[in-house]
């Protein structure tokens, strides 16, 4: 038998300090709510339609094609076939020569790419500017690296003609942005097209950011996972292509968003070797390696798209056309109900103004829960429709200013969007009866 002193439970803290304050995650709570109550889930950002046939056929070929080495480790920093075709593709997009072995690294989804960026480039005491609203992992990842997030919001400027607002109407204040740069600023995180808003930053806006980065010698972590999902003839401009920016920018990309296969978890970073060499150090000492089979199939997908680049039959041309239609259907459905959607220029998402519905949602006594959280929970429980509160994409300092909005995902099958429309139509009838 152990003596009583050896049986005692540990009394000292077991949690690493870097995890303090970042343990809560909105997705845990809202995924559970959606699973429990929703008839239609427009909350999480993944398609419920199939990945393209050419991609799944490439995976089948890789699995059964007789090359047994595709079931083993490949090169740790990226399967040779994939980094080679990514380099060819980005040479075309950026207008510069790339070395597949030093300018491209494959990661376990864009999520791990971001983690590598923050761990490799941010030190204790460094400040990192984050544009709000922001994809929610940026803040905890900066903090885990020992950095300090500094937030600057996009501010809405509603059109005066009574038209629906666009994501382009949410803009940075140039003076406010400039005031956030200091001697402590190590990096700025740019997400264009932006999740959750769907904003596609213009050349002028990117030029302002680039000018400040060069002036203050600051890095840019450019999250471009929705680069192909841009609507209404808008153009996605890569900040790394602007003067002075290649040498200080890491581009983050995602096969999950590019090929509608989010569960494959294949992402990448593209950038100068002087930055990527440090990301490789983090990668080799964390996940080390990504699934070979998935990388091979994604490589074949990109080889197809390289041959069809700019042609009507290209998946990168067809997908945004299909998603723009889906966006327009959901905009119409929400507008009919009176929810005031903000028309996104890109991504899977649109944000809607829910301020006209305050009288419908009961107050919760002794609760400091924001209105958008209460509304979203009320909507999924009473209407069966799941969405995400927008204030979840803001810092504590600013979230109370943006509690009149929620985010929907429209990257769904027609049947799913029709079911959502049916819920919204019934809701409208109930309101008017």
TrEMBL record:
Its cofactor is pyridoxal 5'-phosphate. Transmembrane segments: none annotated. One of its GO terms (cellular component) is mitochondrion. Pfam families: Aminotran_1_2. One of its GO terms (biological process) is kynurenine metabolic process. Residues 39-420 form the Aminotransferase class I/classII large domain. Keywords: Aminotransferase, Lyase, Pyridoxal phosphate, Transferase. SUPFAM superfamilies: PLP-dependent transferases. The keyword ATP-binding does not apply. It catalyses: L-kynurenine + 2-oxoglutarate = kynurenate + L-glutamate + H2O; an S-substituted L-cysteine + H2O = a thiol + pyruvate + NH4(+). InterPro entries: Aminotransferase_I/II_large, Kynurenine-oxoglutarate_AT, PyrdxlP-dep_Trfase, PyrdxlP-dep_Trfase_major, PyrdxlP-dep_Trfase_small. One of its GO terms (molecular function) is cysteine-S-conjugate beta-lyase activity. Pathway: Amino-acid degradation; L-kynurenine degradation; kynurenate from L-kynurenine: step 1/2. Homodimer. Belongs to the class-I pyridoxal-phosphate-dependent aminotransferase family. This is KAT1 transaminase.
């Amino acid at each position: 038998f152990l003596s009583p002193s050896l049986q005692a439970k540990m009394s000292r803290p077991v949690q690493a300090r870097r995890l303090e304050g970042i343990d809560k995650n909105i997705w845990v709570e809202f995924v559970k709510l959606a699973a429990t109550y929703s008839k239609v889930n427009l909350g999480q950002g993944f398609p419920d339609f199939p990945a393209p046939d050419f991609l799944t056929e490439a995976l089948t070929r890789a699995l059964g094609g007789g090359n047994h080495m595709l079931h083993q480790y490949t090169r740790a920093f990226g399967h040779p076939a994939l980094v080679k075709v990514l380099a060819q593709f980005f040479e075309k997009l950026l207008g510069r020569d790339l070395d597949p072995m030093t300018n491209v690294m494959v990661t376990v989804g864009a999520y791990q790419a971001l983690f590598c960026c923050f761990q490799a480039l941010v030190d204790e005491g460094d400040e990192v500017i984050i544009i709000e609203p922001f994809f929610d992992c940026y803040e905890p990842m900066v903090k885990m690296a020992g950095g300090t997030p500094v937030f600057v919001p996009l501010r809405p400027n509603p059109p005066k003609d009574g038209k629906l607002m666009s994501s382009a109407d949410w803009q940075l204040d140039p003076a406010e942005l400039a005031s956030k740069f200091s001697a402590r600023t190590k990096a700025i995180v740019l997400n264009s097209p932006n999740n959750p808003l769907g904003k596609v930053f213009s050349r002028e806006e990117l030029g302002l950011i680039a000018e400040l980065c060069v002036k203050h010698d600051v890095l840019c972590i450019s999250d471009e996972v929705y680069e192909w999902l841009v609507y209404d003839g808008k153009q996605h401009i890569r900040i790394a292509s602007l003067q002075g920016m290649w040498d200080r920018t890491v581009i983050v990309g995602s096969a999950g968003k590019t090929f509608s296969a989010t569960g494959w978890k294949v992402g990448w970073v593209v950038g100068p070797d002087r930055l990527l060499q440090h990301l490789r150090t983090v990668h080799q000492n964390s996940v080390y390696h990504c699934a070979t089979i998935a990388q091979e199939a994604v490589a074949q997908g990109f080889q197809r798209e390289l041959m069809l680049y700019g042609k009507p039959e290209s998946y990168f041309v067809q997908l945004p056309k299909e998603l723009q239609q889906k966006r327009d259907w959901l905009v119409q459905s929400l507008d009919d109900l009176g929810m005031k959607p903000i028309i996104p220029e890109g991504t899977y998402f649109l944000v809607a103004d829910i301020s006209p519905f305050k009288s419908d949602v009961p107050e919760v006594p002794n609760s400091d829960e924001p209105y958008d959280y209460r509304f979203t929970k009320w909507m999924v429980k009473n209407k069966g429709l799941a969405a995400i509160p927008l204030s979840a994409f803001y810092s504590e300092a600013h979230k109370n200013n943006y509690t009149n909005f929620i985010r929907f995902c429209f990257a769904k099958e027609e049947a799913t969007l029709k079911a959502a429309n049916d819920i919204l139509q019934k809701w409208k009838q109930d309101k008017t009866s």
